[in-house]
Structure formats: C-alpha cells, structure tokens
TrEMBL record:
Gene behind this protein: glmM
UniProt cofactor(s): Mg(2+)
Alpha-D-phosphohexomutase alpha/beta/alpha domain segment(s): 8-142, 173-263, 270-376
One MF annotation (Gene Ontology) recorded for this entry: phosphoglucosamine mutase activity
Record-annotated membrane-spanning stretches: none
Protein name: Phosphoglucosamine mutase
GO biological process, any: UDP-N-acetylglucosamine biosynthetic process
Length: 462
C-alpha cells in the first residue's frame, strides 16, 4: 500500500493506515491544505472550486470527503460529479472558479485514487505552489469556517455535454465532413467516464459507435493503462466489426490511443503526431512534447515549416514551454493531446475530434495513415542500482562521455544522435535510472539501450 505526495497532488491506495495510504483522513488533510492555500489568509473573498471525479469504486467516498472539507473551509463548490480530467479543466475558467480538484488516479489500477490540483486557469499547479500545499499539509495549518460562513454546493452534471459543445465549436473540427464519411468506431471506455463522453461526442459527429467496457462502474476489465498488452479485446473487436478504427482512453480521459482498422496499435506516440499533422496543415506553427516522446513529432513539425522543442517530462513542463514558444499544439507521447485553442491540458475529446476531421479529408485507412508517418521504435528499460551509488555522478559521467553530441540536461540526460536518441532519467524515490531509446528499427532501439546499460554499469563499477 502506498501514499505518494508530490507537487502535482496526492496519490495513493485506498485503505490501510493514515499517512501510509490514501485514507479518509489523508483525503481530508490534503483537501484542507489545498483550500487553505487558495484562501491564503483572505477571509473577505468568497472562493469557489470545481470538483469532479472518474468512475473508480472509491470515487464517491473520496469525492464526499473532499467536497465537504472545502465547504468546511467556507469555499463554495461546483460539483460536476462523474466527469473527466479535461472536463474539469474546461469548467474552471468557465465557472470563473479559483481552482479545481480532479479525483482520479488516471491510468493506475482500481485500488488507487488521487487528488489532482488545478489553478484558476484550469491548469496544473506550478511546482512552487505544489510545494506550498505540501508544507501546509505537513503543518496542518488549517483554519475552518464558523457555521454562518460555510461554503455551499452547486451540482452541475451538464459539463461533459458542455465540454463536447466546446470541442465541436472549434474551427478545425468539422462534424459535417466526418458525418458524411459514415465512420464506424469501437470505443473502450475501461468502465469509467470515457465510456459516456467519448461515445456521445462520436454520435454527435455522425459516427456509428460500438461500445466496449463503457459502463461507468469503476470495475476496470483490464489494466487501465492504454498499452498494447492490455488491449487484446478491442484489437480483436475492431477487426470483427470491420470498424474504421478503435478508440481507447484511460479512466480520466486525458490519454488517447487508437487501434488501426487491421487491429494493430496505431501507437500512443503517434496519436499526437497524427493530430499535429492535421492542425499544422491548417494553422502552421510550433510544437512541443516532452523529452521522452517520439522524434516523429519533430519531423512532422519541420515538414510544415514549424519549430519543435522538447520540455522536461511532466504536463506542467510541456504547457510552460508551449506558452513560451507559442506552440500551436503539443502534448506527451503517452497519447496526451494539448490544444491551446480550447485549453492547456491533455484532452482526449479534442484529440478524437481533430483526428476524425483529419481522417475525413483523406482517402486512406487508419493503417495507411499510420504507415505514412516517419517510422520510429522505442525501447523502455531501467537499471536498478544500490543505494550507495551516486546516481547524479553517473549521469554527469555519461554527459561527459557524450559531450560532443547534442545533449540536454534539463531533465536527466538526453543525448540526440543523428539517427537515434537516448534519455536517462533518475527516479526521485529509489536508486533507479530509467533508460528510454528510440531508433528507426526495434532492434536498433533495443541494441542502443543495452549498450547504454553496459556503459552505466561500467561507470558505476558493477
């Protein structure tokens, strides 16, 4: 059982002892810290927070604890109930709220839940603000309101529909063109809120929907991380139904994966590549993804005469660099699409609508579209070291070894070779170095990873 406190929120497993897991006491403690941070000693203003949750089994319990804690702090709550991460992000500015909380453990299994914290823009908190909340929680410096100053709850369960409307209103989304193509799509909603909102969006775009695991009961039928090894059922069903493609989302609907018409994975890394290809063809500009994402986005960006840059890993870092470079589109290679025209957050609804519009204008299958993009293959490994080994010293030694190459050290060590790359990142919690490589063949990516692992072992004296 685990409780992970970080600058982006609190995440843990349900049950167990206080402080070791995400117990009711811990949920109240961190909701109190967040509300106290927002108020910042200001007792004159009435504060407002948007709260939504995914469909996991512990959702209603954690939801009630968090909402009533905020009420106890004198903060009004806009309660979206069952929702998605991007929906809450969209709702915060529309409601002119001071912040938002999403209750979801994203792609983690059902025993996990989490509090994801947003600012008044509906974006994830900065590292500095997250650190302040952790300090407040540690000190338990809470000041609850008296009875006449308690907050109020306003229930608004229309926001998933509002979110769909906002997506369909985007200039680059063409529902009429999509409807004319009469697409048939299989949707795996992993029995969470994506099983409601994604089919609704598709139907409003004139798409025939085949539902798979779209009952929002929180009983995940497979590991909810949308990786190939977990998606055998939808890959099979796409072929059986002779569907144009399949859509898979994680429980909070911020990660998006496609299944091609032949039942093969389109590839999470290529979700962003395909959507960016369409967006850049209509609105040329810059792009951003994180350092562990595919080089294919760089290639597509340069094809459209834009400039690509890589940020440190983490959505908040991607967003920060997107703003700095005025990026038209960005995201992460895990299937996260960030389209600032709507909001600065990973959003599967935006990704689905833009992808469909892109496909509607093309005379090719999804498999053929995937084959049209630059072909890259990744290898993801890790090397476990003893606690006595200085991981930072190893990374410095690798930086020195490859100092004549194109190197970035803003997040571990990223070495860009002419035909491939390697990204070394240390764990913040254990003596591990994660090793990501990418090349033009799987064999080359695997070989590069093995070579780097041997070089790390040599430096470490293993």
């Amino acid at each position: 059982m685990t409780l992970i406190k970080s600058i982006s929120g609190i995440r843990g497993t349900i049950g167990g002892k206080v402080g070791d897991n995400l117990t009711p006491v811990d949920a109240v403690k961190f909701a109190s810290a967040y509300g106290t941070f927002l108020k910042n000693g200001n007792s004159d203003k009435k504060f407002k927070v948007v709260v939504g949750r995914d469909a996991r089994i512990s959702g209603p319990m954690i939801h009630n604890l968090v909402v009533n804690t905020l009420i106890g702090l004198g903060i009004d709550v806009i309660d979206l109930g069952l929702s998605t991460t991007p929906t809450v992000e969209v709702a915060v500015p529309l409601e002119k709220a001071d912040g938002g909380i999403i209750l979801t453990a994203s792609h983690n299994p059902k025993q996990w839940n989490a509090l994801k914290l947003l600012n008044e823009k509906g974006e994830f908190l900065s590292g500095a603000d997250g650190a302040k909340i952790l300090e407040i929680a540690e000190a338990e410096a809470f000041d609850f309101s008296e009875v006449d100053d308690l907050g109020e709850i306003t229930i608004n369960d229309a926001y998933m529909d509002i979110h769909i409307d906002e997506v369909l209103d985007l200039p680059l989304v063409d529902a009429e063109a999509v409807a004319k193509r009469k697409f048939k799509v299989v949707v795996d909603g992993v029995n969470s809120s994506g099983g409601i909102v994604i089919p609704n969006l598709l139907e409003q775009m004139g798409v025939e929907v085949v539902k798979l695991y779209c009952e929002p009961n929180g009983h995940f039928p497979h590991n909810p991380e949308p990786l190939k090894e977990h998606l055998g059922d939808i890959c099979k069903l796409v072929v059986e139904e002779k569907a144009d493609f399949g859509i898979v989302v994680d429980p909070d609907v911020d990660r998006l994966a496609f299944i091609s018409n032949d039942g093969e994975m389109f590839g999470e890394e290529y979700t962003l590549v395909a959507v960016a290809d369409y967006v850049l063809s209509k609105t040329p500009g810059n792009t951003v993804s994180n350092m562990s994402s595919s080089r294919a986005l760089r290639d597509i960006t340069e094809k459209h005469s834009g400039n690509y840059q890589a940020s440190a890993v983490g959505e908040v870092n991607v967003v920060e660099l997107m703003k700095k470079t005025n990026a038209i589109i960005g995201g992460e290679g895990n299937g996260g699409i960030i389209y600032p025209e709507l909001h600065y957050g990973r959003d599967s609804l935006v990704g689905v609508a833009l992808f469909l519009t892109h496909l509607a204008a093309l005379d090719m299958t999804v498999a053929e579209l995937r084959a049209s993009y630059p072909q890259y293959y990744m290898s993801k490994n890790k090397i476990e070291l003893t606690p006595q080994i200085d991981v930072d010293a190893i990374l410095e030694a690798m930086t020195e070894k490859y100092k004549t190459e194109n190197i970035s050290t803003i997040d571990g060590v990223k070495i860009d070779f002419a035909e491939n790359w390697v990204h070394l990142r240390k764990s913040n919690t254990e003596p591990i170095i994660r090793i990501y490589t990418e090349a033009k063949t799987q064999q080359e990516a695997d070989h590069l990873a093995l070579r780097i692992i041997e070089e790390i072992k040599a430096v470490a004296g293993l």
